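[agent] plan:
  1. take the single chain provided in the ticket
  2. run structure prediction with default settings
  3. attach structure tokens to the ticket
  4. add a short note for the reviewer (M.T.)
[agent] executing step 1
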Amino acid sequence: MTPLISVQDLRVSFRMSKTQTVEAVTGVSFDIPANATVALVGESGSGKSVSAMSIVRLLPDNAMVNASSKILYNGRDLLIAPIEDMRLLRGKDISVVFQEPMSSLNPVFTVGEQLAEVLRIHLRLSSRQALDRAMELMAEVGIPNPKERLKSYPHELSGGQQQRVMIAMAIACEPKLLIADEPTTALDVTVQRQIMELLAGLQQNKKMSILFISHDLGLVGEIANQVVVMRNGEVREAGPVGSIFKTPTDAYTQALLACRPRLDSRPRRLAVIDDIVNKRPLVTEQRICTPAKGPALIEVKGLSKDYPLKAGLFKRSVFQAVKQADFSLHKGRTLGVVGESGSGKTTLGMMLTRLTDASAGSIMFDGCDLALLNAAQMRKYRSRIQIIFQNPYASLNPRFTVGQILVEPMRIHSIGQNDEDRARLALTLIEKVGLNRADFGKYPHEFSGGQRQRIAIARCLTMRPEVIVCDESVSALDVSVQATVLNLLLDLQEEFGLTYLFISHDLAVVKYMADEILVMSEGSIVERGSSEEIYARPQHPYTQQLLGAIPRGLATAS
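[agent] step 2 finished; step 3 output follows
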């Protein structure tokens, strides 16, 4: 049977300068059958997105495709098709759903206008017909009150609703192929579940093919028929999803499957890529929850955060982001906080570090209520409570070298006798987080996402903190890099007796890391308990809903 798309010997290089080129994809070949879902799997930099974007010719200007490469669609080689033909093809026969909907939606037009534009251009509908069809599409992808939502601007929709609008735009012309490039990476587990079910339903109803790009093997196991595993621009393994997941033959595929934290075990160390590839013995000894000993290091009572909202000319209303939160942190333990976006997790962490002021409540630390301190009084406590932010690309100053990033906070807080002493401390920390001393003089753009997160962790350690708030600090990382960073956090906790407030919407990661878990919904803590209790016997319907939404594709595929 002739495939819908056949990628043959794809080779793509990028011109970095007049004399330097980098080969991103080297001889990649795979087929996409009609009415099927093929998944491209691999870490960042493996060539997944470059391969997919080559199909629609949406590569950067410095990309060079080898003349021997072919991408066949209905007997035509898309790589040599006239650009006018490709413009007609994009959005009509082949559509793309990108990872970040806010970067793809125009902020100055309503979502209705943007949907209607696709229909007018490709289907030649009138403005009235296009808006009517846009409303039908909004309903089809599960957006409530579609008639009203047509008038909404992108910023007025949630992340899940924005992604649904992108999917509606992509399926508007009933394409033969939908390319979904990491479409659920930034979404909560429940919204992620809804998007995956939506894509699977659309694939069956529309009889279209999907090229699904992801590094999350749990998701791939639920949606894909075929899997193509890529690394360093090459196909390492390909085949039916069941056989790939059950009996992978390539060491790299085995490593990707082993890196992900499991719900049924908690080894003292997670496997990383090099462990599997180099056939090192894996750690089977299980982690045991650290018991709470002695008085709490930090005791939080009635912590609340209200944001005033303007309801009218003379009326004011209040949005309660966090409502009467009570919890305690004990030395050497990890308190996990889980919940969807908007549940209050990050606000809780920001109030604990006093980066956001609480509206009510107390934060007792070493006999002092941090909630009552002014900026000057709080300064001496800042070194003792640090935070690792979610995005390692935005949290480091691009104009500073790694050495400057680490030395500056020590200078501000008078840690070390002089800059020479601080530089020595910084070099020690660089090695402590698994980087090289030679990295001291490099800039953030010279590092990968996982390496940047290690730098952010080293910056926290310069302050010699007692408490670290990890705010979605591994959610932007590949599973293999994520495993490396989680192992690092546990090693540092054991060495320095650190206390973590670990915030995440990834429930498998939280279960692996946390001794105790708080479940938050709409600003309230709705359930708490040990990680084993929460996962084995969830009591609150919201907790049960979160656990039910965890991708279990690895088990399904096997």
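[agent] step 4 note for reviewer: The longest helix spans residues 189-206.
[agent] ticket updated
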